[in-house]
């Protein structure tokens, strides 16, 4: 196929409190707040554009599925960031996969992850550990 998407443009998350949520992403995860207004905020995490948008319908109840957003973290920063997350956020899952990961909730119940590694490191893991039902293409 010659025509395809070129990457992820931005992620928008519904939030109940447009003061609390940007503070969480700035103070806990280290995102840069680039713009803020009465109903939202734009933040940056590396090359990721994150939009937080006020939505009165958002709830903080844990969603039952595995859908989540994973943030890349350099290995040398993982311990510090993971400790900040553990001290501030609710942990929703223990890591059972290759690579260091912390699974936690933001103030609005969005499932997030800090992850050390890449698609390439994950594929290399499965090449070294065949038999887990994964076919590398």
Automatic annotation (TrEMBL):
InterPro entries reported in the protein's UniProt record: Fosfomycin_Res_Enzymes (IPR051332), Glyas_Bleomycin-R_OHBP_Dase (IPR029068), Glyas_Fos-R_dOase_dom (IPR004360), VOC_core (IPR037523)
SUPFAM superfamilies linked: Glyoxalase/Bleomycin resistance protein/Dihydroxybiphenyl dioxygenase
Database matches in Pfam families: Glyoxalase (PF00903)
Listed GO MF terms: metal ion binding; transferase activity
Entry keywords, A to Z: Metal-binding, Transferase
Domain VOC positions: 7-117
The name this protein goes by in its record: Glutathione transferase
Organism: Devosia marina
């Amino acid at each position: 196929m010659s025509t395809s998407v070129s990457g992820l443009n931005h992620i928008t998350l519904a939030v109940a409190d447009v003061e609390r949520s940007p503070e969480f992403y700035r103070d806990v995860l280290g995102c840069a707040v680039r713009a803020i207004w009465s109903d939202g905020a734009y933040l940056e995490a590396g090359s990721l554009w994150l939009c937080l948008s006020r939505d009165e319908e958002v709830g903080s109840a844990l969603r039952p599925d595995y859908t989540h957003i994973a943030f890349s973290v350099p290995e040398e920063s993982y311990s510090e960031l993971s400790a900040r997350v553990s001290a501030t956020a609710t942990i929703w899952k223990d890591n059972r996969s290759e690579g260091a990961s912390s699974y936690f909730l933001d103030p609005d119940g969005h499932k997030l992850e800090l992850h050390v590694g890449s698609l390439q490191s994950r594929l290399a893991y499965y090449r070294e550990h065949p038999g887990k039902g994964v076919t590398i293409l």
